[in-house]
């Protein structure tokens, strides 16, 4: 049966029979169609568009299946659109489409609903209702009563249409449901669509709950952080402090600190970055730490420098006895700084054996100048990042020790003591000595670059002082420093240091009261002579501590109320004698010479012994000698053989005897050329049978012509001779100029004789003068073996 209706094309919606839907109509043709329907019997044909965007749809732009509907209500809105409430009536197929009076008119064929019954349909209906209930629970847009209303429908066709109308699916899927005439099939299609939607809705629900949880957590954290800030603000106000807002605090710091132009730009940029970041993110922590380090540096803060040279001298004299030359150099250095108000001078490097007061001198310089004191030990440092810092790309990166200690000092002009600079390591991880080149160069350290900060740091106001035991340093680093040598103390100086500083320090450290412990000067001298053998005073301090412990125990046990230690009872407290004091030999010995050696811990006496044994003129050496010393033995042996007759040695001896040269303390490595004259003296004494004077010690390198060459470490060697009870020391003529630096009490306690040739040495060292022999004597010539002719290319070994 064909009927004619005004047509209302629908965008994005499909209307089903028995479905009441509100529509907003704006197109002129659609409004005209509604007016025509209202003027007649309020019947209209609703059909969906294929393309929702088309404003003037024709036959090809509309679906074939639609629905007839009754207009229940029509309301014209002020903007020209019309709100209309329609109720779907019956399916209808579009046959023809025409236009009349400004609106579309359709001829449609009505389609009757098909009735279906049976248990299968009932089961299907029940399943659809159950499924819809599940769907309605997940889809919050549906009213709660919809599922209840659907459960009351007992017709399959109406149920299928009602479900189709209420599920949220695409227009094409809804149109397919409208086209399907068979209610059972329509129910199956609706069931399948709900199944698919349920899966999507469940995933949506999971996502929503997860997002909700995260939102709740972040909102909770935000809320708690805001509460914390409010509490801190309240506390801050009560303590009259600045508010706890971190960003505000950093902004204030940047504004008030005397930052360099580069540092201010960098700090402002980093703060801008921090403002845009989430407070709890890892990157924010990195930026926050960076700003803490940058703004924690002492920008523009300087200690007030003391410029009184006399006061500086007084401080150094009070803290350190002796070391006059060292103290003079330091005071001169401070004087120049006080006058010029600049530090453009070389870096001081205090070099000397352990225990002579290098580190404490650094502290005294800081005290004398009023600077903050920072000590950085470089022993074992082998990573360049320790000096320059790590780049910020690394997790847990930190600035270098220079920047860290500058921050700790709280002033831009501290005294920076680089302790044990000769113990710097070097391996595949880096070369920290090379990283120090920039730090220790007054021309460059005004713009020191730390890898972490990446801005120029001005170190030109920092006073650097280095300490080292040896000059075993890279040449470029050595070139940047002024070397001040601390050679060690004489016995008298050690006595003074102990009486002024060490005894009082140990008495206080052990809790002894005044008058309970006394160490006489005689006992102290005996302690130095028999229990210590060192350039510094560390061992002496340990021995004094030992005496204090023993004395304290006696007092606590009630055996005495006070203890006095002197030379006579020293062994009761200090134990058996450790070192023999005085001459090593009790009488003059043939072939035994006392040499003088330099070591890292000061000077030492070195005994040289030689004996002759039957053989063919070979020389054997023992005593763990280095290559240089072995060569010295060979040179001495060649010189003695060359000059044998003039020393009263028969040339035939060299073909009948071997010589064994030994340096006692065989486990201690020995090297260097300065035992040359001692070796010659020992060899001549052995071959001639003339003893060597026991009170004479000597040092000097020898040439094949018998000249005596200069040596190093003269002060340490003379101190060792004085400690060992030697009275006469032979030194090279060219070292005579160095005697100006030797303390007067050392020169007074020794007879120091400069020598330029071995002949002078032998005259002074041997107990008897040597008499030359006439080596052309016929008997002597007859005793010599015939000359051996070596084959061509052969090597001769001795």
How would you summarize this macromolecular structure in one to three sentences?
This protein has 798 residues and is of the alpha/beta class. It is 42% helix and 18% strand.
Rg from C-alpha positions? 53 Å
Number of helices: 27
Distance between the termini: 139 Å
**Overall pLDDT metric:** 85
Structural class comes to alpha/beta
Main sheet properties: 7 strands, mixed
Q: How much helical structure, as a percent, in the residues?
A: 40-55%
Low-confidence stretches: 238-244, 787-798
Spatial strand sequence of the major β-sheet: 18-19-17-16-20-23-24
Strand content: 15-25%
Basic shape: elongated
> Count the strands?
24
Write up this protein:
The protein is α/β, with parallel strands linked by helices and 798 residues long. Helix 10 packs antiparallel against helix 11, helix 10 runs antiparallel to helix 12 and helix 17 crosses helix 18. The longest helix is centred in the first third of the chain and has 56 residues.
Features:
5-stranded mixed β-barrel; 42% helix; 7-stranded mixed beta sheet; 24 strands; 798 residues; alpha/beta; single chain
Topology of helices and strands:
Layout: E1 2-10, E2 20-25, H1 28-39, E3 43-48, E4 65-76, E5 82-100, E6 103-110, H2 119-138, H3 146-151, H4 156-166, H5 171-179, H6 183-238, H7 246-256, H8 261-276, H9 282-296, H10 309-319, H11 324-340, E7 347-351, H12 358-369, E8 373-377, H13 385-388, H14 401-409, E9 415-419, H15 432-439, E10 448-449, E11 456-457, E12 463-468, H16 475-479, E13 481-485, H17 491-509, E14 517-519, H18 521-531, H19 538-556, E15 563-565, H20 570-574, E16 592-599, E17 602-614, E18 619-622, H21 627-642, H22 653-656, E19 657-662, H23 676-688, E20 696-698, E21 701-702, E22 708-709, H24 714-723, E23 728-732, H25 744-749, E24 751-755, H26 758-765, H27 778-783
Parallel strand pairs: 1-3, 7-12, 7-13, 8-9, 9-12, 14-15, 16-20, 18-19, 20-23, 23-24
Antiparallel strand pairs: 1-6, 2-5, 3-4, 4-5, 5-6, 10-11, 16-17, 17-19, 21-22
